[in-house]
Amino acid sequence: MNQAISTLDAFLTHAHELEREAVERYEDLAEQMEVHNKPELAELFRKMAAIEQQHVDKVEGLAGGQPRTFAPWDYQWQTPESPESIPVGQGHYRMNPHQALSLVLACEERAEAFFANVAENTSDPAVRESALQFAAEEREHAELLKVWLARYPEPKADWWQDLDDPISQE
User: Fold this and answer.
1) Kindly report the CA angle at 58 between 142 and 8, in degrees rounded to 5?
2) Sign (positive/negative) of CA torsion 13, 17, 18, 23?
3) Which domains does the chain have, with CATH numbers?
4) Could you tell me the maximum CA-CA distance found in the chain, to the nearest angstrom?
5) How many CA atoms lie within 13 A of 93 on its CB side?
6) Which residues contact 22 (CB under 8 A, 6 or more apart)?
7) Distances (CA, A) of 55 to 6, 9, 58
8) What would the mean pLDDT of 117-128 be, rounded to a whole number?
9) 56-76 residue pLDDT tens
10) Model confidence band, residue 1 (pLDDT cutoffs 50, 70, 90)
């Protein structure tokens, strides 16, 4: 993060964009999985999109409507995209449940780390309290995903081999 997020308005703007992007990416991945006849993964991504939409709604409630937006370069992410968004190109038609859950878990862990970092570096008590609450919610999601991940063993090392390399449909 380049600088501390020091106002509740700026925090809610960041939280809104982070959650909105997550909804968008999960919906895109659900559609990809449907196209490639992976209904179980499509359902997983739709569930995650619904969970993230609840966060969007929560942020809008806290902000008294839709928060303002920043120019893309003004968001205080440590990565080119928001922390909770699956990076473009990492979702592909050969994904299996273990890989999909691992990607989603990484998103939740990045979001938790982002909110924890905001809480640690802000001087505003309201921002700190909100960021700690959001970090705790992301941690809960990560724990839920770890339970789901335990249901799907890691596939053999050569599961991905394909003469036609899988690429993102984004």
Assistant:
1) 95
2) positive
3) 8-71+78-150 (1.20.1260.10)
4) 55
5) 12
6) 48, 49, 52, 55, 82, 84, 85, 107, 111
7) 21, 16, 5
8) 95
9) 999 999 999 989 999 888 898
10) very low
